[in-house]
Hints:
The complex is a heterodimer.
Chain A: H1 16-28, H2 34-44, H3 48-54, H4 66-79, H5 83-99, E1 103-104, H6 105-113, H7 125-141, H8 145-161, H9 163-166, H10 170-182, H11 186-199, H12 204-217, H13 220-223, E2 244-252, E3 257-265, E4 269-277, E5 287-290, E6 298-303, H14 304-314, H15 316-336, H16 340-353, E7 367-375, E8 378-385, E9 393-401, E10 407-413, E11 416-417
Parallel strand pairs in A: 2-10
Antiparallel strand pairs in A: 2-7, 3-4, 5-8, 6-7, 8-9, 10-11
Helix pairs in contact in A: 2-3, 2-4, 3-4, 4-5, 5-7, 7-8, 7-10, 8-10, 10-11, 11-12, 15-16
Chain B: H1 3-25, H2 46-62, E1 74-83, H3 91-104, E2 108-109, H4 115-129, E3 146-158, E4 166-181, E5 187-202, E6 204-205
Parallel strand pairs in B: 1-2, 1-3
Antiparallel strand pairs in B: 3-4, 4-5
Helix pairs in contact in B: 2-3
Amino acid sequence: MIERQAVHPFWCHVPWKCVLFCCFFVFLAGCVSGSLTRARSDFFSGRADEAAKVLADPDEVSGRDRLLYFMDKGLILHHLGRYEESIQTLLGATWLMEEQDRISMGEQAASLVTTEWVTEYKGEYAERLMVHTYLMMNYLITGHYEDALVEGKQALKVFDRHPDACRNDYFTRALIAQCFEIVGDINGAYIEYKKLANAMPDPSPVAARVYSLGMQLGFDDEVESYRQYVPEAEPNGAGGQKSAELVLFVSQGLSPVKIPQNIVLPPSIRFSFSTYLDRSHYYHPPEIIMASGSGEVRMVTSDVGQVLKDSLQDRLAQILIKETARAAAKEAIAQSVKDDDAELLVRIVLFLLEQPDTRCWETLPGYLTLVRIPVSPGQHQLTVNTFDGPGGSVTIPDININSGPQFYFYSVFSGSITTTAAD
Amino acid sequence: MSSNSLSTRMILWAAMAAAVLIAGCSASTRDISPDETIHYDESYDFTDKKAIVEAMVASLVTKSPLAARNDRPVMIIYNVANRTSEHIATDGITDDIRQKVMESGKAQFVNKEQRDNIERELAYQYGGNVLAETRTARARQIGAEYMLSGTLRSIEKEQQKQIRWFKKEMNYYSLVLELTNLQTGLIEWTDNKEIVRESSRPFIGW
């Protein structure tokens, strides 16, 4: 007698735990912590206070996104003028970056068969640099000049490790030079200004500084070529009679964000990677209006978007190797499944899991400009115009400048003034 | 060997492994003597501060000009400038130096940090609420004869990029202190303490 055997669909043979496990990873893939998304949305809508509140509790953000939490929160607090809190938050980012300076075998193994989203976000090289940039700004504004220089030296390490990724970040380089200058290390300042002058397509915004510091150090021959950029009214390149300087950090626009890109090859091999998509398309050089007059205004601007793109490009080989290894591992897994139907399910799941890691520091501005304005002692009112339209004009009222060589730092965010400052 | 005894053994081994794992994962605390030398990595820590302070104080109180003076000259300590690439609270160094020098009985110190509070307190005493005969006399503060100042510097080096399991880093710290005679402007004593440390950490972990 032939016993009739019940025929079950193939999914009945797949262990349910396995299915759940796969569903969990599919769910996990492509998700940034909800509170980060809400905070960014609030920030972009002009509700920075709300954004800071959303990010009050670090435990609400996944451990994988902890670095982004520190970065976004630190920047939001900076724009709210809560510099001390911003410092503490961004220092959290620097400590985390140090801890992340190793390869986690567990994470790498998991990401090899699933997706890059299961790994801790370590930040692009340019983003890591920007953490030190914002710390420098915060320390300068709050008058902690030695700490600003400490961050400047940390930023120099990033420049040294990733020269190609960071070469176009003129703003940060100018900030480092400023940190050396303010603590009286003119040799350090001279070196950084000179590196900056060599890196910039047009060295005129910093040439006078190179010339002035070089002359002070007795490097007359070395700086002679920069003499041509020094205005006649400033024979020493030191800003003529104006001994104090207003220094503005002007943020404009939004940095690009990462978007997914895919290449699909038969039978189910999917290479996924991310590229940057611009969100700000126009740069308006800040226009400085001072009723009381000023010396020659000098500006150094970083196209943050370009720096981020260079940074991603610098990691390209690393990304390609990892993607190839993941595609090979997933193909091997799919081929090891004997049942055709089960193999199809596995291929679908692995295909869906292949999500490019589009995490990035979204609250970064599109452009950062360092503006140096020589001013005379007395009371000044200053307006910064960045574009025509609501919020494009920012006024900083009643700046009291004392006599003597001093710096006065302000951070200005295109759209509104976010702070005030310290001398 | 019966299957029963085999499974019992396996359970025992698993239990032992679990016990070792749990013991390894449990949190623990212990008191550490400040005299103990402990370094978690190559960066500046309390052991370095202690070594720096001890070396500098020993030099300061046993060399000229303090060694030759028995009248406890008055000194003022200015900040030690931090020129390292770490956030180091250098007032910890100056506080400890001041304490050790005072314990040695070789000098006295002006309280620079409390000047504003001293001024505020004196203003209060002369504000009309304090008995005239109990007021602290004004213009009786002692001027410093010497100024102690210094700079803490560091040089960091990382191993070149290459295929390796461990990453080596080396830090060099140097504290230079100077004692300046406020009347003449001459540096009458100077010394330095150097610390060099190398650490290595694995590139790969779990």
